[in-house]
From TrEMBL:
Keywords: Signal. Residues 1-33 form the signal peptide. This is Peptidoglycan-binding protein. Gene3D superfamilies: PGBD-like superfamily/PGBD. SUPFAM superfamilies: PGBD-like. Residues 59-113 form the Peptidoglycan binding-like domain. Pfam families: PG_binding_1.
Length: 124
């Protein structure tokens, strides 16, 4: 399913820019801001996040919301604390999307979260 989505995105991109060679290729744009209209609107900030159960961060609430929209199963409490449940959800999400399962939310994980939280289907 992930392969199908990637191929669809590549085809759509090629159709948008025209025939290869007619337009010079550029590097990929950064992931869209984290605000997901009608779903996750806590903050557009996407800092590196990791296990910190006693530290509140608004970006953790954003990540928890995006994880809830990206996967089936029990929803995380969107409390802004990166505890054990959030860590486990991040690991599950990373494994489902083929990312390195390091339990950190960095650029690659944010990018996949932004895609899946906007989607009408689930990563896993």
């Amino acid at each position: 399913m992930l392969r199908k989505r990637i191929v669809s995105m590549i085809v759509a991109t090629m159709a948008t820019v025209g025939v290869a060679g007619a337009v010079p290729l550029v590097t990929a744009a950064p992931a869209q801001a984290a605000i997901i209209a009608g779903r996750c609107t806590y903050t557009p900030d996407e800092p590196l996040l990791g296990y910190a159960p006693n530290t509140y961060k608004l970006a953790v609430k954003q990540a928890q919301c995006e994880l809830n929209w990206s996967m089936t199963g029990d929803n995380l409490v969107e409390d802004g604390y990166f505890g054990t449940n959030t860590r486990n959800a991040v690991l599950r999400f990373q494994r489902c999307t083929g990312l390195d399962d390091d339990a950190l939310i960095g650029d690659d994980t944010w990018g996949q979260l932004n895609i899946w939280a906007r989607s009408n289907s689930y990563a896993c």
